[in-house]
Design goal:
By secondary structure, the protein is mainly beta. Helix content is 4%, strand content 57%. It has a 22-stranded antiparallel barrel. It has a 5-stranded mixed beta sheet with strand order 6-11-12-9-10. The protein has a 3-stranded antiparallel beta sheet with strand order 1-2-3, with no helix packed on it. Strand 15 and strand 16 form a beta hairpin. 50% of the residues are buried.
Length: 708
């Protein structure tokens, strides 16, 4: 059976035979691309297999990777977590910033080195994959409402431009993998309850039956939320079936179902409203019945075959169907804005790709060559209707939106010496966006846009000594505007919001240098510095009635990211990360007052620390704290959101009782009762930009597992 974390492919064994630069084995530790994991609770010295990173589209050991890459494993993602959002486990990763955990209508906002910060709903600028299948649409918008935190076994993050690997909207990459079923079949039930009427129920089972490995997880969550009009109901089923035909061939199939009949939107409120009542909703959201509901079905498969000792192919194919309806607080009471506050669409998203890898020699040196293609096709049948005090009214918008993205890529890794490796890559992408306007009362606004971009990359890795590896890379990224970002800009609000506006493609060039390794055998470090030039960045210019409008501007980004893990004593470990982000507008033709100002939605400094204690008996305790610097709310920095510190505590115990594994846990969110903002609606209209986070709140639960 192929493994994501251990080299078993014959071609990889040949590739590294006689070369030590790919081996970063430091006593009892395994370095997993940026996050250090202790392999056993007892800390016994063992000879460890090599850990492999797969998000780079070549199975690479850490010493080979010429990018800033981080990995988070299952225990950090699931154990004792409330499992509301990915930020619960990924705040530890430097260079990544989250907002909006508590508004399920607007979705989690994720930014990697600033890419993604502009979105007031959904995710932009970064590529997301789940089990090697895209969660990012062909037009570049991503969502995480179908991600099942309760069955995630591993997350890999590439921090920085990656279009040479993945094409458009690759300012960063998140690859999530469903856990495998264990050799011994099991059934596990989990119940979590908490304040604000939070309830979550989960049933998971999996195992190995002959050549079939399987994992199925179902969950249902409901919560009234901290603020008024923030109730959510969300059901999800996620499953993975892995069949190994023989030692050289395997097939993985993914089935995913989502039913979310309610996700209310409490909206952004003014600063004076926050002082009056943090838990209130925006009045317009209440009167408009603001929120969304959706159903989604996804199926995909990945086939992997070892043709011979040196040749491997991978093929994937997927299909996604999504029915969506949202009530937005947009009405005729908002001046100049067309009354189209009910959005509906039926989406069909499908595609696939293939990849070929040759592992052998070039000029007598070990070499790995990879080439492949991706095709993604998106079709949205979209309508808008008037929102008549929370009731669906007359049709005001009707168009068929189609996006097609096709990319061809090559990547080559050449071992130059025992300690030096060169990685070169390139990709050419063609993206076609088209609109067929079927609501002609305001004239035909059909249109078509075509984009073609070549994205190169180059990197070097140098293993200076056995325990330290340095890297350098030049990377690029481009990003086409999404359909919602191509709506006519705010200065033309007297025009119906259909068709295309003149928002150009965003392009970025980045130079990065970094190092990772060990001090002694108890301290792991990971540090990276970068400079980045972004031309025609897609920037939000205003947010009116939950509709955001965009233009282009040039930005400069310089940053430092550092992480450290310290083995303090047996069972006690400290994890810490620091991010410095100097991101500024360089040129802003339509808003010169913003030039030289920092990008909104990204703090200049961010610090995370977690102290975890695990005892051999199964008891564990984890305390973490996140410090976030001031951040700008708008492009001119005339409004600033204050810095904050948020701490959390988790306590749990794993007990073996008569063949059952019983795992009670309890957690305290916002331990110090900090008053801070869960989300900021950038460039919001009328000062309605603040979404207050819950104060101190407690949750608890228990899981029961039976191994057969």
């Amino acid at each position: 059976m192929f493994e994501k974390s251990v080299i078993q492919l014959k071609s990889k064994q040949v590739f590294f035979q006689g070369h030590t630069m790919g081996k970063l084995r430091f006593g009892r530790w395994v370095i997993t691309a940026g996050i250090l994991i202790s392999t056993t609770v007892t800390y016994a010295d063992t000879e460890l297999d090599e850990i492999i990173v797969t998000a780079t589209r070549q199975d690479q050991s850490l010493a080979e990777v010429s990018n800033a890459v981080s990995v988070v494993e299952k225990d950090a993602i699931q154990a004792g977590r409330q499992q509301l959002g990915l930020d619960e486990s990924l705040n530890r990763v430097p260079g990544i910033f989250f907002q909006n955990r508590y508004n399920f209508s607007q979705d989690l906002r994720v930014a990697i080195r600033g890419f993604g910060a502009r979105a007031n709903f959904g995710i932009r600028g970064i590529k997301i994959f789940v089990d090697d299948l895209p969660a990012t649409l062909a037009d570049g918008q991503s969502g995480v409402d179908d991600i099942d935190i309760g069955s995630i076994g591993r997350i890999e993050i590439i921090r920085g431009p990656s279009s040479a690997l993945y094409g458009s909207s690759s300012g960063g990459v998140m690859s999530l993998y469903t856990e495998d079923g264990p050799e011994t079949p099991f059934t596990e039930a989990r119940v979590t309850v908490g304040e604000y009427e939070h309830q979550k129920y989960q049933l998971k089972f999996g195992g190995q039956s002959g050549k079939l490995n399987y994992l199925v997880n179902g969950s249902y969550m409901e919560s009234d939320g901290y603020r008024a009009n923030s109730r959510v109901e969300h059901g999800l089923v996620n499953s993975k079936f892995h069949y190994e035909f023989d030692d050289d061939s395997e097939l993985t199939m993914i089935f995913n179902l989502v039913d979310s009949p309610q996700a209310d939107d409490s909206g952004g409120i003014r600063e004076t409203d926050v002082a009056e009542d943090r838990r209130q909703a925006q009045p317009g959201n209440l009167s408009s019945n603001a929120g969304e509901k959706l159903e989604q079905h996804k199926f995909g498969w990945i086939y992997r075959h070892q043709l011979s000792e040196n040749h491997e192919i991978r093929v994937r194919n997927y299909y996604l169907w999504r029915d969506f309806q949202a009530f937005l607080p947009i009405g005729s009471h908002i001046r100049f804005v067309p009354d189209d506050g009910v959005v509906e669409f039926d989406r069909f998203f499908y595609g696939g790709g293939a990849q070929y890898t040759f592992s052998g020699e070039l000029f007598g040196r070990p070499n790995q060559f990879t080439t492949g293609f991706d095709i993604d096709i998106q079709e949205d049948d979209r309508q808008r209707y008037s929102n008549d005090a929370g009731i669906k009214g007359a049709l005001s918008f009707d168009q068929l939106e189609a996006a097609q993205a096709c990319g061809f890529y090559v990547r080559n890794s050449l071992v130059l010496t025992e300690s030096l490796q060169l990685i070169l890559g390139g990709r050419y992408d063609m993206v076609d966006l088209s609109v067929d306007d079927r609501f002609l009362a305001n004239a035909d606004q059909s249109g078509d846009l075509d984009f073609g971009e070549f994205s190169p990359s180059a990197g070097l890795t140098w293993s200076a000594i056995d325990s330290v590896s340095f890297y350098f890379n030049f990377a690029t990224a481009f990003e086409t505007p999404t359909f919602t970002e191509l709506a006519n800009p705010a200065r033309n609000l007297d025009v119906s919001l259909g068709g295309f506006a003149s928002v150009d493609t965003q392009n970025a060039e980045s130079f990065e240098i970094g190092a990772r390794g060990l001090f002694g055998d108890r301290v792991y470090f990971d540090i990276a510095g970068f400079i980045m030039d972004v031309k025609d960045e897609v920037v939000s210019v205003t947010n009116i009635g939950n509709r955001t409008f965009f233009e282009n501007a040039d930005t400069d980004r310089n940053g430092i990211e550092a992480g450290i893990v310290v083995d303090i004593m047996e069972g006690l470990q400290l994890t810490a990360s620091y991010t410095y982000s100097d991101f500024e507008f360089d040129r802003f033709p339509t808003n010169m007052a913003a030039e030289g100002k920092m990008l909104p939605g990204i703090p200049e400094k961010q610090f995370f620390a977690e102290l975890t204690y695990r005892h051999n008996s199964g008891f564990y305790l984890s305390w973490d704290i996140l410090l976030v610097d001031d951040l700008a709310i708008n492009n001119t920095n005339s409004a600033i959101s204050d810095s904050y510190e948020v701490a959390n505590l988790r306590v749990g115990h794993r007990l073996q009782l008569a063949g059952f594994e019983l795992s009670p846990f309890i957690g305290i969110n916002n331990l110090f009762d900090t008053k801070y903002m869960s989300n900021l609606r950038l460039n919001g209209f009328g000062g309605r930009v603040f979404e207050p986070a819950p104060t101190l709140n407690v949750y608890g639960g228990v899981s029961v597992r039976l191994n057969y």
